[in-house]
Design brief:
GO cellular component, one term: microtubule
GO molecular function, one term: GTP binding
Family: Belongs to the tubulin family.
Oligomer: single chain
Keywords: Cytoplasm, GTP-binding, Microtubule, Nucleotide-binding
Structural class: alpha/beta
Shape: globular
Number of strands: 17
Protein name: Tubulin epsilon chain
Length: about 475
Amino acid sequence: MLTTLAGCSWLLSTEAREQTFQKRQSCLCLGLQLRNQQRNMPREIITIQCGQCGNQVGCKFWELALQEHAAFNPSGLFYYSMSSFFRNMDTRFEPPIELPIRSGISLIQSLEARAVLVDMEEGVVNQLLKGPLSNLFKTKQCITGISGSGNNWAHGHDVYGPQYGEAILEKIQSEAEKCESLQNFNMLHSLGGGTGSGLGSYIMEALNDNYSEVQCISIPVFPSKDDDVVTSPYNSLLAVRSLIEYSDCVLPIENQALGDILEWKWKNPKVLHYMIVANLLLHLTSSVRFDGSLNVDLNEITTNLVPSPKLHFLVSSMSPALRTSFPSTAGQQSSTFNQLFAEAILRKNQLIKANPLACTYLASAFLLRGSPSNVSDLTHNISLLRQRMKMVHWNPEGFKIGHCFRPPLHAPQALLCLANNTCIRSPFKRMKKAFKKLFRKRVYVHHYAEYMDLEMFKVALGSLEDLIEEYEAYDNSKMLH
């Protein structure tokens, strides 16, 4: 039975599938494409969704990823590129068996996501298992608790970590064993609560210990200053230390920045922020999932944008920010190709509250989806951006360019900008200020003392201050190009 989603039912009958398959197999153009795919066979990516926010973002990512593949693959064929995130299963057998990809292509039967779902409450994961995406996930991929982590990093890390850590690693190992060449883990979580921050930290530490050769990209959501979790400053500080020590690349998102983007063009307060975060992940992985003239492997992001182990925090922005995320904005006037690039580096489109143009770029990447009118348009716009961006002196040519042929669902073109920029200090300074304000009065500290040594707060604060200072060092005018 084919995994389907509303509007994404590719196949109608076995006979129709076979006819389509034979026709496509005989197509010379497709044959050339397949040979290219075989030479550049993608490597697998396992997505780890931790906590309520992580699973909500993950749910939207999988939903939109299926819609994208359906839009560009109406015949329902399973390509090598899809194997990065999905397995193609024959459910006529018990247990189901994975179908081989013949000559780089096969028929979709039932898709299974390469993912592990973790939450210490059952609600969100149960909704996934019972909802329209239910065929994508099996209970063997999920770990859930009942009572939650009490918005306490220490409870998630020091109680649920040891309690569930072995079971989580077993599920990750099970997914890894199904991969031919595991490339990296994508970690989705938030830092404000207890599970995404605490248990998420434990998982990152475990991945570092057990899969040190596999890259881990984290996409954490930072709480806003008026977050409804009063202990979020504690949780965020403790979790950031793990991001510094155990993640290879981090793309932080600030809730406040998401709210500002929505208010800028979209007045509906009920629109969920994880729609935008899911689209960030779609753009980031577009070159893995589709063909392009300048495909960018996820490992290339770290190689080109991370100059030293701890300076691995990247500022993200998308242009257009809304039309790629929400169908109801698709009718708005399209941005011109030149506007895509001009707007991508503006403060209003950043996924953190910071201004990269006022600070120093250590390196940057521009990942384009959809086709430019010609290659010269692409190079021309990059040249214009270079004139506006303050580059560090030892990396004046630190620009990585990616181009995926397939546009997003609701716009003809889109651009994702990733920047290793010293403006990343801004959210970290706000985090430090919020922590000190709360910790000065020792508010709620006794809840953490139940599970951890309170010296951890000082260690985490020192780690954050060192990171801020290291980024500040690159804003010295003598280091600018």
